[in-house]
């Protein structure tokens, strides 16, 4: 699974990046979380608000959040890992 946080480098974007890394760690996943500040990539994704949480190249959440459980839920929902829910 490819997990990306896209943003402009603002504090909200960094916070989503850090929370997403923590969520991945808490869930016992080995996937790397990548932080991308390339505005062209954000535009190509068709989103108008940052930060963006993307899984496997698809924007799955936009806007800032401080709710790590929401992030975990989004990861579970869009995970293609077979049997992942059993590890939750």
Report on this structure.
This protein is of the alpha+beta class and 88 residues long. 39% of the residues lie in helices and 19% in strands. The protein has helices spanning 11-26, 39-45, 68-78; strands at 3-6, 33-36, 52-55, 58-62. A four-stranded mixed beta sheet has the order 2-1-3-4, sandwiched between helices. The protein is globular and about 30 Å long.
Compose a concise summary of this entry.
The chain has 88 residues and is α+β, with helices and mostly antiparallel strands. The chain has 3 helices and 4 strands.
Short key terms for the protein model shown above:
88 residues, alpha+beta, globular
Write the layout of secondary structure elements.
Blueprint: E1 3-6, H1 11-26, E2 33-36, H2 39-45, E3 52-55, E4 58-62, H3 68-78
Parallel strand pairs: 1-2
Antiparallel strand pairs: 1-3, 3-4
Helix pairs in contact: 1-3
Ranges where pLDDT stays below 50 over 5 or more residues in a row are none
**Number of strand elements:** 4
* Largest beta-sheet details: 4 strands, mixed
Percent of residues in helices:
25-40%
Strand order in space, largest sheet: 2-1-3-4
**In percent terms, what proportion of residues is strand?**
15-25%
What is the overall pLDDT average? 89
Quaternary structure: single chain
Structural class: alpha+beta
- Distance between the terminal alpha carbons, to the nearest Å? 16 Å
Shape: globular
The ordered H/E elements are EHEHEEH
How many helices in DSSP terms?
Answer: 3
C-alpha Rg, in Å? 12 Å
